Amino acid sequence: MVQHQGEGYGAAVGPGHHRHDHRAGQRMDKIREARAKGYEGDPCPKCQTMTLVRNGTCLKCGTCGSTTGCS
Ligand SMILES: [Zn+2]
User: Fold this and answer.
1) Average pLDDT score over residue span 5-15
2) Distance, CA 68 to ligand 1 centroid (Å)?
3) CA of 1 to the centre of ligand 1 (A)
4) Distance, CA 2 to ligand 1 centroid (Å)?
5) Which pTM was predicted?
């Protein structure tokens, strides 16, 4: 088992990762766009924007500042 330290983005995010999936549609486009900007690609449960960033063990919204997973 390999223990990743500082579990952040990096492995899954990067250039050259272009997949054409027409069924997924605009939602995947938004997720991909968000990830291209360094976000996780998940919608904020509070303000619905795709600006969640990795914040330790949870996600934090870059727009409204709310966190997920670590209440
Ligand atoms: Zn938010």
Assistant:
1) 57
2) 10
3) 34
4) 32
5) 0.58
